[in-house]
## 1
Amino acid sequence: MVRVFSFLRMRPTSRGMQHTLNIIGGGMAGSEAAWQAANAGLRVIIHEMRPKVATFAHRTGNLGEMVCSNSFRSDDHEQNAVGLLHWEMMQANGLIMQTAYKHRLPAGGALAVDRDPFAESVTAALKAHPNISVSYDEITALPEDGHWIIATGPLTSGALAEAIQKETGSEALAFFDAIAPIVYHDSVNMDVAWMQSRYDKGETIEEQTAYLNCPMTKVQYEAFIDALLEADKTEFKKGETAGYFDGCLPIEVMAERGRETLRFGPMKPVGLTNAHDPLNKPYAVVQLRRDNALGTLYNIVGFQTKMKYGAQKAVFSMIPGLEDAEFARLGGIHRNTFINSPTLLDDQMRLRSRPNIRFAGQITGVEGYVESAAMGLLAGRMAVAELTGQTLDPVPNTTAMGALVTHITGGAEAKTFQPMNVNFGLFPPLDGVKAGRRGRKDRYKGYTDRAKADWQTWLAPKAQAAE
């Protein structure tokens, strides 16, 4: 019998069923918030504008659709903060992480998923829940009454974004986010490319060969950089002055920061041996990661771009092995918005000026699928506690979940607030005189051990036995 540390395993109560929680947005955060609240007995209505109202990045009307990478990043819950977040969400009966593991693809030490079956499974689980209904409508104004969670993500509709801006009395912060291209595997020249995960990570042969690698000589790399810098790129509209999130920079922007930047970033040649020429170390390597279970699609890792479509085909064909590559999707760029959460939200993630409204997900200033879903998980639980009269202890800031919510609700400097991935820099220092003298590996293990204990303690008072 597995112990699931989650107050959401309790049976629905009539007290809980007297309340309805409305959630705007059916992405990672909205889906997770709905799952958590519905399992606690609340009636939940998810308001999703897709597919009636399309966005630049979405292709379907599915809930939990992945619009950029298909990776939830590192799954190492002992040495990596996002891997720790995976673990915490699983302990809390998180829908997003459960579904991710169900549709996992080989990706070395990363948790990559088959994106379409993943979103289809999330959608099916939510629609099958007796306490959840989905309304396909666009919400264009801030609700005056009722209990709401706004989890519209970085692609908040223009009308709602304008309403948020009007309410907060200040312009919504914004940055630009880019999408990497996806190629068909059978169009890759395997006489040049080879399959290998960096440092041969992964326990099985399938995991160790989850990546395609395209080698470059110094001459090829220099020519590629020249082409990147000279390529036609998307121009922003007048007045669009937002910056980029550093975790998702277009490759052209990275190249502009120095000719060697890409070679020490997504094109680093370390941990790889060219199977076709093992004695010669490549000067740079372009990696492609499997994007679906069939292995027919691969995305170019770290190759977010703002190049125009014609330029992308010309420049990417310079990559050895991709000379005749066919693209299932080319890259692109879109405008993301987020609010200045440290000034606008209280410690319960409620809008200070309208406490009937909570915010969750990427719009709060966290970055990444996992972080967005995590904030949805907390927002759902906080709403349950408030609506049912429970007392929910503050989330320990020693946990990955707590470190994130503390950061966005007051821990960050409001004047310089920017989107943030979870990282150990958000965690309070380890106790003890010798803590600062530990090696990084021991220090990270210390963070995760402490976080796991504190997270289980936070969940344990409401622990239930899983069936």
## 2
Amino acid sequence: MNSEAAPGQDAAGYCAALVRDQDFDRYAATLFVGTAPRRALLALAAFNVEIVRIPRLVSQPLVGDIRLQWWSDLLDGTAHGGESGNPVAAELLWAIDSYRLPTAPLRRLIEARQFDLYNDPMPDLAVLQDYLDATVGGLLHLGAMLLRPAPGGPQDVDLHAAHAAAMALGIAQLIARLPYDGSRRQLYVPKDLLERHGSSPEEVFAGRQTTAMQAALTELIAVGQSHLAQALQELLAVPRELRPALLPLALARRDLDRLARPERDPFQPEERSRLATLWALWRASRSPAFR
């Protein structure tokens, strides 16, 4: 909503720079597709960056809701003010028009991200699955649609692997971000899972590594690894030209293995280097099993 390109910088260049700086994993994954779909993938990723960072830019949930509504109105063609000078909005609308993308997944993503504006804990695994399917899975599915051999072909793409991939990627991301989210009293680890192991949201917010909390995280990581195995199995049936849309699964495989280490402190931030990210994606791009 507040994005403005620097003088002389086109909208596509602005989006590429934004994603490179704010979401390097998605930026790096686009390097393994052709130039035309890459521009559209970056438009979707830049839109996602704008949505994800809204909670960090507002002090009141109501203000965040207003910003999310602006993006919904943009998709409806009823947004007022700012869209003509917003490079992310311009690129998003270009991608939707050029590739005949449905807007329903984008609307669902916006609606799901309302959760981020409030401090309500994630109640259970079923709600988490819906959240990750809408936020992570929706982008994966749209990415596959961008890679169709004929952009003017059928709108829908059968990509069941996107659902399992969303869980694997999303769980890896939320556990890696536990120190940051916990400091903001934002809980994405299902509350009922914590309580079943004798832990609580307050232990997470306090940054206390307890046996009970570690047991809950271990179970959640196992759920992520199970979905990863399912996604990699379903990957075998995905048409070759669509497979790059699921390339981030290589990062989920690496991250879930690292997060599962018993000696790891879940409240000690660890960032994967950009070189490691590129290396993992390059290797995966050359392997049918994304290894």
## 3
Amino acid sequence: KDREEWRSRRREGIGASDAAAVIGFSPWKGAVRLYNEKIGLEVEDAEETEAMEWGRRLEPAVAAKYEEETGRALLHLGDYTILRSTKYSWMQTTLDRWIMTEDDRGPGILQAKTAGFFKKQEWEGGEPPVYYQMQQTHEFIVAGVTWGSLAVLIGGQKFLWCDFALNTDFAEQLIEREREFFERVQRKEPPPFDGSADSAALLKQLYPRHTEGKVVALPMEALQWDDELLRVKAEIKELSARERAIKNLFAEAIGDAEIGLLSSGDGYSYKEVRKEPYTVKEQAYRELRRRAAKGSR
């Protein structure tokens, strides 16, 4: 009946906007934070950001433009209407719009989005960002449809839209990943931390300080982590050296020019950058460093 009840009901299952977080492709949230929200350890921020507010305000305008561009009729079920799958009970969603078509595909689903101008490159190439494709796949499964459209207003002035069909292979993978995640929620078994910035931020919140003199025995699998970390760091060092060498080749070729052009039409600029002096504020944080045992590598 209202936004508060809608937010409460969303915690009872996995929504379309959660799909990318479950798989680890969300730019905003990781699986661990999503898990904490679902079991009530962390409360999802109820305050709208300015970007979220404008996305909500402009959604009807994006939908209207889509109708105008495509000639397809849309149906709005309401901002607080939640659909739940009858086959996969944990899967639910609130649709932006139904697409009411008269062709053999049957109805589809529209996602109406807004994006800042700096996100323009994510939409180039004819396909929407992968995390929105995951979101729409989730909606396809819940609603039982096989196709949909994604429309976006970029920077308040550039309108784009595209159709795409259900990828059944990916849909099966998504169902299984979401099933596994939701079973973890029911068992109160948190997912492992991943390599996302969100996981790193959560770990800093959980363990902001060390206990002086405290030593713990790491699990046996930590030996594998150690081997892999050393190997990855060696690869990064080698790649970084190669990157510097290639950059030096470009710098030498450009010389005292401002821009060097490739035969493809792309190019590189090599300009002077000035930065104002500043003083770093005092800060405290934990840093992970490897300590080699005496006599070992």
## 4
Amino acid sequence: MRRIDWIDYGKVIGIYLVVLGHTNLFFSFKDGIYIFHMPVFFFISGYLFSFSRNPVYKDFVKKRFRQLIIPYIWINIITYLFWFVLGRHFGDDANANIPWYDPLIGALLGNGSKLIHDVPIWFLVCLFVVENLFYLLFKRIKHFWIGLIIFIIVAYLNYTFNPYLMPFSFNTAIVAMIFYVFGYMMKEKEFFRKSNVLYLIIALGILIWASILNGRVEMYKNFYNNYFLFLLGGAAGIIFIVNICLYLSSWFGDANWIKYLSNNTIIISGFHLMTFSFIKAVMVYILSIPLTVLEGKIGVNILFSVISMILCLPLIFFINKYCPFIIGRKFK
């Protein structure tokens, strides 16, 4: 499959929004990020999927297990050890009195709300569930829009009447499937081929309106406030980001550093909270800067997120060169 330049830009913008969303931004700004940044990743994953390139289900499961679950296991081990030795003794966790076994239970269950040591990696398990469901249920469907409507209804009923978080982020996977199918359908229809400034402006307006009206979204907890506003805001955010990325790819082309970050979003997702701890330790213990300077400040947290991404680069290099098995890759 030919590499799609705007996809790389989308993954980089998406992972930066993930990092930024985990800083101490004020909540109304976070609400705007949370309503669409994870839907963007599920959309891109659906856009990239192809039945013709994955004709045998067994082979597809093996490949995605290696690419998603193996990194999930290794990142869990590394970040749990970091949390057990250091993380639980400092910051908010020091006062939370969290039993040492709670994160391990969370890792086994695959629920983001229990992944105390590294919440962001819930996405890996959830995407694995989504892709298996999609393959098994949509392999022989001709009218994808029917399946999309069914999942919108099923996800709504589950969100409304099921208060329990199911193992392996299954509740969230049902909702995420909507954006995954949307991505697959848009690729099949060849909808996103050229940027459109009108779509961009309208989508941005809907995104802002929906996020203000809806408030807090926590997809990893299967919490969306108003379910339909979340879907609307997520779809608007996707259209906005795609058009931004189409412009960027037409202006700057296939920039190598963009491709490099795009290829390593799993590492950034899995380890950026560790870089947060390092930056905060330097601020407090070396530079004597109180962490209160981060609370609710947009500019400071944007800079904080950039520094975090930069600190991930040596880790990306090290993992790819010396232990690529951590992210399910082979030695070159």
